[in-house]
Design a protein that fits this description.
By secondary structure, the chain is of the alpha/beta class. A hairpin with a 3-residue loop joins strand 10 and strand 11. The protein has three domains: about 150 residues, Rossmann fold (3-Layer(aba) Sandwich); about 160 residues, Dihydrodipicolinate Reductase, domain 2 (2-Layer Sandwich); about 60 residues, Alpha-Beta Plaits (2-Layer Sandwich). Strands 7, 8, 9, 10, 11, 12, 13, 14, 15 and 16 form a ten-stranded mixed beta sheet that branches. Bound molecules: L-homoserine. The site of L-homoserine has 8 residues, from helix 7.
Length: about 400
Amino acid sequence: MIKVAIMGYGVVGSGVYEILRKNEKSITKKTGGKTLEVKYILDLRDFPDHENPALFTKNFDDIINDTEVSIVVEVMGGLKPAYEYSKAALLAGKNVITSNKELVAEHGTELMAIAKEQNVNYLFEASVGGGIPIISPLSQCLLANEIEEIYGILNGTTNYILTKMVKEGADFADALSEAQRLGYAERNPEADVEGHDARRKIAILASLASGKFVNWKEVPTEGITKITRQDVAFAEKYDAVIKLVGVAKIDPEGQVYIRVSPMVIPRTNQLADVNDVFNAILVKGDSIGDVMFYGRGAGKLPTASAVVADVIDAAKHIHINKLITWKKVDNNFMIDPETVPCRYFVRATNSAVINDFSGAEDLGNENGEWFFITEEMTEKEFKNTLGDRGAFIRVLD
Ligand code: HSE
């Protein structure tokens, strides 16, 4: 019997409990006969109607001081007190499983190092892509490869909003309200729509793929709040859609280019068909080529599915560290994003702007705005030429 504590009984925490109960028999077989029993649920709220109210505690000490508990599930979100609790649990020799991308992106290096010292595991499959397997593939199945590129749609809320703008011609504000009404977007949707959530996720993936800590705060990030209905309509004329994309490229010297921004995606690209709250992540390895991961990037049971898989994995490796890690390095290995070539979809404020971009493809105009696509050029050259005469979205080629 392995005793588990769940910290945080919100959407994901209740999903973890539900799956552990619902699939108890098959999970026991998968752990080699060890039953996983939830001994505590930590939450400040009361849940009097729960099937087992005795499991609930408001006191973290109950968990940390109980030597029977060997797996702690942290699904509280945020840094405080999740960081302090996770660190204490690892130092006490307990395995910690999390869905908390904020914490992994900020303190993952330290928490993984403590897990290694203590011969336990800090596992975070659910922190990126919800239910989609992506951390395990990068830290296990694809280990034979040098990872050259990762790009994908990493945020379900923004994908839902942009899908509504493309399919229904909705403008950003209406699509956001609908996402909030359906419970996809938070009441304060800033982390999603400004790209911070996707930025943490791509930083985690780039860190795993490169083996070096990529600081999420250094990821150049643009959200989707400035995308207009006209942008969507003119991208459509180019047979393309607009999506929020996280990109990380690792060159043969280990230098990393990373960015989160809206991108114009030609319909020939597989990501163009990833709609609503779905996520998709494409990984390019030097031996395997392209691999695509697609599925539900958020939601109760999909996210809990990834958490419980990590719980089972921890149960199977109860005192064996799996060596999932990256290192903080001192030298600067980030590629200056202004030096990276790209094509640009431009919304210009006057008709003459296009003449300054040789080979640009004219997409037409509406209400005093001119739309065109440039040839490939570095961002520095592009921005110098455009100046303040318009807005732009990068093209994913
Ligand atoms: N807010 C996130 C999203 C939840 O919309 O994708 C899952 O990380």
